[in-house]
Amino acid sequence: MKPENQTSSDFILVGLLVDDKVTGVVFAIIFSIFVVALTANMVMIFLIQVDSRLHTPMYFLLSQLSIMDTLVICTTVPKLLVDMVSEKKTISFVGCGIQIFLYGTTIGSEFFLLGLMAYDRYVAVCNPLRYPVLMNRRMCLLLAAGSWFGGSLDGFLLTPITMNVPYCGSRTINHFFCEIPAILKIACANSSLYETLMYICCVLMLLIPICIISTSYSLILLTVHRMRSTDGQKKAFATCSSHLTVVNIFYGAAFYTYVLPLSYHTPETDKVVSAFYTIVTPMLNPLIYSLRNKDVMGALKKVFLKCSPTQKILASYA
């Protein structure tokens, strides 16, 4: 390694690949996913804002999920794409800290939001008559604010501690962005105490939402089991299926990264899993909710028809 890399405060990101032969193909794939994810989430936010039929608690929380997914993918992917076509794959000390904070805050907020969305589904299925009262506008704002507050605590707590750990040797991070476990591997001091604290923090960040999700869906299953109507059971499962799909995808990847012991981790696997929930998951979330939801597809068709040239011509003759 060159001497300047040892004295500079910048970090060097290895990235996803070592073999340059497939860099172009992977770049095209990641760029395509980035564009689709950004477009899908922005469309979801737009539809929820403009269509009055989507002005419900579930879609308000879903719009918050789309905002979080947009922030997650914009925090990691642009830098990754630039590094893939650049010879200098460095990130400044401050830039790394900002990336850790934004990523930790948005991922943490998403942990809590997915848990609170399970509570929303519980109220919708188990207390449908009281749903407008229990999930009023004030409650929705409190749930969204609570999610962002919980995530920001994660960012404010872990970022300064991580950046204050001494990095006096190699500053080469075997990752494609500044993720805390990868950064701690290059620390030149004993970071076992901090790793333990981070482990406890991440377990709590996962445990609280998982408890809410488990309790909510246990009560939902009991309610569905007592239903005599087959149509009612199908409607209840349809209401919850999209959320459960997103929860399984997101929490599965997060569980591997932050809960499994280090003996189960390898740098290659860590990068693949991180790429999945920072690049692929933000694309899957809006697609799962839109493709499996008649209201969202109806709102999309309504907007498309209004914007189509044929509709404008017919409107001019009306």
Structure description:
The chain is built from twelve helices and three strands, in the order H-E-H-H-E-H-H-H-E-H-H-H-H-H-H. With 318 residues, it is an all-alpha fold. The chain starts with a helix and ends with a helix. It has a three-stranded mixed β-sheet. The relative contact order is 0.14. The model is unreliable at 1-7 (pLDDT under 50).
Topology, element by element:
Layout: H1 3-7, E1 11-13, H2 23-50, H3 57-84, E2 90-91, H4 93-126, H5 131-134, H6 137-164, E3 172-173, H7 180-184, H8 192-226, H9 230-258, H10 267-291, H11 294-307, H12 309-317
Helix pairs in contact: 2-3, 2-10, 3-4, 3-6, 3-10, 4-6, 4-8, 4-9, 6-8, 8-9, 9-10
Summarize the structure.
This protein has helices spanning 3-7, 23-50, 57-84, 93-126, 131-134, 137-164, 180-184, 192-226, 230-258, 267-291, 294-307, 309-317, and strands at 11-13, 90-91, 172-173.
**Helix and strand element order:** HEHHEHHHEHHHHHH
Shape: globular
Rg over CA atoms = 22 Å
Mean pLDDT: 84
| Fraction of residues in β-strands | under 5%
Largest sheet: number of strands, sense, barrel closure = 3 strands, mixed
Strand order of the largest sheet: 2-1-3
Features:
mainly alpha; 3-stranded mixed beta sheet; 12 helices; 3 strands
